[in-house]
Design a protein that fits this description.
It is a single chain. By secondary structure, the chain is an alpha/beta fold. The protein has a single domain, classed as TIM Barrel (Alpha-Beta Barrel). It is built from 15 helices and 20 strands. The radius of gyration is 19 Å and the shape is globular. The two termini are about 15 Å apart. The model has no long low-confidence stretch (mean pLDDT about 95). The chain binds (4S)-2,6-dioxohexahydropyrimidine-4-carboxylic acid and zinc ion. (4S)-2,6-dioxohexahydropyrimidine-4-carboxylic acid (DOR) binds near residues 41, 260 and 276.
């Protein structure tokens, strides 16, 4: 089996900062990416729009420049959201949008994941004019949808977890208060979130990662496979099935690819584990595996990987193509000047993929 598809956009990826940016971008180009949305949880964060604005953080202008110089100029599109912090205000949103540098902005739950320390509670942005300005100026909100500050049973319990809680409370309020705001529910992991999106209008979409389509918490725990440790955590089989059927649905226009590929040169630490799965070089092959890609679901796969995200962000569908072939291929670590990064499959003990990619 051999499928040729338009090149695709990874609408959620971490390219980080420093010397290895170029290696991470190259890994994306080599898996048929025509563009990417590069998340702003860098050190320091990308938390202002213009280089000349006040603040010690990086600007969208400055970060784009770094990415372009490191190879992102080979992409057809590069989206660079603003990190929403306590210092974000409505005038920043309006002026950034007016100059067309600001197309989207990312909400992080305070301290909720890697480099989320600058996050600020969602409720504040509902009241301080930021979401209103985003709605008025057509700026897309990228949401990491987990309730912050929970622990124990409330964080990850049998009947509920931080994502369930967030989607059944804040997201309902957000949708009601800002009905025209365009929202991407990032890396959704639960049936609750998938149902929320499916019951919302076309202004609300969602990214789904390969790992959340393929694995559950059992895969993480059996053998303590820490390369599968990412946030939000992989959940239960009912959740995984719900994500997969959302992605596979013939009518799906709201769910699309966003890998959350997050390189860490040190995953396991003395007292825990860095959150993030690296799927550079292997993401389309993993999505194909999750879909069990075949002639009958090819259209759904193409919509999910190549069309829905482009439509949501108003990007052209690339003319260039890449090919997926049902033939085993080897996975190797990505060597960079700052260290070696282990791709998810290798971290799970699999050095062979079912699919081969040709770009
Ligand atoms: O697992 C994750 N890793 N989730 C995130 O939200 C951030 C990411 C990272 O930057 O490593
Ligand atoms: Zn992410």
């Amino acid at each position: 089996m051999n499928y040729t598809l338009p090149k695709w956009y990874d609408l959620h990826v971490h390219f980080r900062q420093g010397e290895a940016i170029g290696d991470y971008i190259r890994a994306h180009l080599d898996m048929g990416c025509a563009g990417a949305l590069a998340m702003p949880n860098t050190k320091p964060p990308v938390a202002k729009v213009f280089e000349a604005d006040d603040g010690d953080c990086w600007s969208i202008e400055g970060y784009r420049d770094q990415l372009m110089k490191a190879g992102a100029n080979a992409f057809e599109h590069l989206l660079t959201p603003l990190y929403l912090t306590k210092d974000t205000d409505a005038s920043m949103i309006a002026s950034g949008a007016e100059k067309r540098l600001l197309q989207c902005a990312k909400y992080y739950p305070p301290h909720g994941t890697t480099n989320a320390d600058h996050g600020y509670p969602l409720q504040k942005f509902m009241e301080n004019g930021v979401f209103e300005a985003m709605q008025d100026n057509g700026v897309i909100l990228n949401i990491h949808g987990e309730e912050h500050g929970l622990s124990g049973e409330q964080y990850f319990g049998q009947n509920s977890n931080a994502e369930d809680t967030f989607y059944s409370t804040h997201m309902v309020e957000l949708r009601e208060k800002f009905p025209k705001l365009k929202i991407v529910c990032e890396h959704i992991t639960t049936k609750t979130a998938a149902d929320f999106v499916a019951r919302s209008g076309d202004n609300i979409g969602a990214t789904i990662t390969p790992q959340h389509l393929l694995y559950t918490v059992a895969d993480l725990l059996q053998g303590l496979k820490y390369h599968l440790y990412c946030l939000p955590l992989v959940k239960f089989e009912e959740d995984r099935k719900s994500l997969l059927s959302s992605a596979l649905s013939e009518n799906n226009t709201q769910f699309f690819a966003g890998t959350d590929s997050a390189p860490h040169t040190e995953k396991a630490t003395e007292c825990g584990c860095a959150a993030g799965c690296f799927t550079g070089l292997i993401a389309p092959q993993l999505y194909a595996q999750a879909f069990d890609l075949n002639d009958s679901n090819l259209n759904a796969f193409k919509s999910f990987l190549c069309l829905n995200g482009a439509n949501f962000y108003d990007l052209n569908v690339p003319k260039e193509t890449f090919t997926l072939e049902k033939k085993p291929s080897q996975v190797t670590a990505l060597e960079t000047s700052v260290g070696s990064v282990t791709p998810l499959s290798l971290g799970l003990g699999q050095d062979t993929l079912d699919w081969t990619i040709k770009v």
